[in-house]
Amino acid sequence: MEPCRVSIVVITHNEGKYLVRTVESLLAALPDDAEILIVDDHSNDGSTSSIQQDGVIRLLRPAKQLGTVKARNYGANRARGEVIVFSDAHIEVPPRWHDYLLPPLARTSVGAVGPVISMLSQRNAKGFGLRFRDAALNCEWGDWQQRDPYPVPMLGAGFFAMRRDVFHAMGGFDPGMVKFGMEDPDLDIRLYTFGYECLLVPSVEVAHLFRNDHAFQDWETFLHNVMRYATIHFSPERMEKLIKSYSKDSSLPGALARVAASDAPQRRREIQSARLYDDNWYFGRFGMDYEPAPA
Q: What's 1-93's CATH class?
């Protein structure tokens, strides 16, 4: 298939009415020479039955349920766009979002860009990128800093864009992350430590439906993803602070055992031997050095 300018990759699993609303919003503000790839990760609620494939929209159904991380890679590997936008299936975009969000990607030093994220049900509640708030890697939203695009530690996961060549050069999302959780911070730290920046574009605001993610995933699996992230990227000292923060958590031994039995140690060696900066540089740049969180 011929390449195009922009591919929007939407991962969906039983999104119900929100998927249709998301697709309608994306179509109403679609840039020229763009496509929408909907990766149906084995929905059984009929939510994709009304999606019409017409040359602009492609509906992809993997042979088995993949989870968000692997489904994103699945969609990206089939995207034709020079730029890939990763979108949740419960968002609303403003008109002409692409006129402001995409131009910063022309700079080779920029690895990813993202908008302000607001709550779909409360538009005045807004987040300007994300940062870790403690040594346990709990996150908090950032505040507005300036009108022009500026670097943030992490972009909101619900909607962000990358050049396709950068995405593939970085190896995509870590396939060792299970289902979802920490795959976006993992990509962000890889971009920074490999010499790219993640820019927040304050002039674009995307509304997002927020839900309790832990209702869809067991805690040990999520904690595994946290520990995998740290095993790959952290110095021994920072890893020790993280483990101290969860020392009384009954799920910690199981999570650590799963990481130890995985390819995480090998992935750590590969990434740390190739990166330009380490985790101390990244955390220090954004003032995210903390003592262990209370267990």
A: alpha beta
